[in-house]
Predict the 3D structure of the following.
Amino acid sequence: MDIYIVISFINGVVAIIFGLFIFLKNWKNKINYTFFLLSASFAIWSFSYCRWLYVATSSEALFWSKMLNFGATFIPIFYLHWILSILGNTKEKKGVLIFGYIVTFLFAFFSFTPAYISSVAPVGGFSYWPQAGFLYVVFLILGYFGLVGYGMRELFRARKEAGSIEKIHQINYVILGSLFGFGGGATNFPLMFGIGIIPPVGQTFVVLFVVIFALATLRYHLFEIKIILTETLVFIMAFIIIFLFFLMPTTFLRLLISIIFILFCLFGYYLVRAIHKEVSQKEEVERISKMKTEFISIVSHQLRTPLAAIRGYASMLKNGDYGSVPESAQVPINYIYESSVGMIKLVNGLLSISRLERGKIELKIQDVSVNDLLKSCIEDVQLSAKEKGLLLKYKVLEKNIPLIKADPEKLKQSFSNIINNAILYTFKGKVEVSLDKKWGDIIVQIKDTGVGIEAEDQKKVFKSFSRGKSGTELYTQGTGLGLYVAKSFIEMHNGVVSVFSKGKNKGSTFIIKLPIKSIIKKQQSFNIVEN
Amino acid sequence: MKKILIIEDEKVLSEMYKFKFSKEGYETVNAIDVESGLKLVESNKPDLVILDILLPKESGINFLEKYKGDVPVIVLSNFDDNETKNKAFSLGAKDYIIKSNLDPQEVLEKIKSYLKD
C-alpha cells in the first residue's frame, strides 16, 4: 500500500507546484486562476489520499477519506470552468456553470455526512477504504459524468471547429490529460462500492493530469516548462547535496561536500539564468512576429471593404448597370476596376502570408487531376498572354498522369502564381508549361523566355516581399508575395519547387515536383522565425 | 417576386447589392444588425438571407445561432477566417462568399442558384 501513499504524495506536490506556477504567472487571467483552483482541489484530494492510507484507526481513516472526497467534489466543476475558460465559452455557458457550482456546493456541504461517505471498510487488500453513501452516487452521475462529460463534449466540439494548429494541439493536450486524470481516478470507484477485484492502478497516471494540463495552460509554449524543469532539477540536486552533508562521517568529507555545494549553486545559478535568457529572447521574437501577422490580418480586413465597394461600383458602371457610359470615361473606369482588382489580389496575398505565418491554413484534401488544374490556369491567362503577343503552350509529356491527394484551390493558386509571374516578366517569345511523371513524382515545368533571374537573386525569389533585381527594374506592380505563397502551398503538399536561370534576359524555368503518394496534414503551421 | 434580406451594416455595400438585385427583379430588404435582421426575417419571410459577419453589437455568427427558420442563409463577408467559416457552415450557412473577390454580377449568379424553385 506504500506505493499508493508515495504516488499520492507526488501527485499533491506536483499539483501544488504547477498550480502555483501558473497562478503566479498571471493570476488575473481566468484560465490561470481556474487552473489553480483545479490544482488546489486536486492537491486536497491527493494529500488526504496519502494521509488516509497512513492512519492507524478507522475513525482517522474515515475523517481523511471524507476530506479526500471533499476535495474531489470540486474537481469536476473547476475542470469544467477551466475548460470553458480555455475555449472562451464562459459567458455563453454561464447557466451550466451556475448549475454546476450550486450542485457542487451542495455536495461539499454534505461531504462530511454519512449520506456521502457512509463508512470505511477493508476492501481489495486495503485496511480502510471509504464506502459510498447514496449522495455519492448522485455526485458520480451529476459531477463526475455530468460536468466532466460536458467539458469533454465541449472540447471535442471546439476541436472540430478549431482554425489553427496551435489550438488543436492545445485541445489534444487537454483531452489527453482528461483521459489520464479522470480515467485513472475512476479506478478508485469500484472499491468504494466494495468491489476489490481491480486495484486502483489508474492512480499512477493521475499525476500526468496536472502536468499535461499545465502544458496546455501555457498555451503550447513549452519554453516555460523548460524553466520549471531546470529549476526543479537544480533544487532537487541541491537538496540531495545538503542531505549528503549530514550523512558524511568526517569533517573533511563535510568540507568537501560544502565546496561541491557552493560550486553547484554557482553553476546552477548560471544554468537557470541562461535558460531564462534563452526563453525571453524566443518569446520576444515570437511576440514581434505575432504582432506583425495580426497587423497584416487586421489591415487586410479593413482594406477589403472599401476595395469591394470600388470594385463593385466600377464593375457595374463598366457593365452599364447605371446606363451607358460616355466613351471617354470607359477607359478610366476600366483603370479603376483593374486597379481595385490588383489591390484586392495584393491584400489577398498579404492575408495568405499572415495565415501561413500563424499556421491558419487548412487544406481541403481530395482527389485532384493536376492536368485539369493546369488547363484551367492556362485558360485564365490566355488573354493576357495574347495581349502581350506571347506564345503560350501547354504540353502533357506523359499520358498516364494519376490523380493525387491535394487541395485543388491551393495547388491551382501555386501554379497560377508561377505562370502569372512568367507572363508578367516575359516581353517577347513564349511561356511553355509541361506536365510529366518521373520516379513517383508529378513534374510541372514552367519555362519562359523572359527577363531571367540573376544568380544572386535565385535563392531569394521564394522569400516574402522579394522581387529580385529584374523584377524591381522592369515591373512595378509585383508584390513579391506570389512565389512565396506558391512555395509554401507546394511544400504543404510535400512537394518541392526550384528555379533555374542562366541569368539576365536568358529566361527562367520553374520546376515543381509533387509526390504521387503522400500523406498530407490537413492543417499545417510554418515557422517564420529563423533561429 | 423573390425577396432577399440583406444584413449588412456598410451602407455603401448594402446599397450596391440592393441596386444590383433589384435591377434583376428581386425585392430587397435591408437590416443593419443581427437584432433587426432576426425581426425582418420573421416579418418579411424572405426567400434568401445574405449575411455579413462583422456587424455592430453582435456578429453574423450570432444570427446563425439564433435563427431557427428554414430560409437559406448565404454569408457575404470580407472576414476570411477558417474558424468562422467552419462555424458558419456548421450552423447551416449554405455558402461563404468573400465580398471583395467577386463583382456584384458574380454574387448575383451565385445567389440565383439558391433562389431556384
Remarks:
- The longest strand of chain B covers residues 3-7.
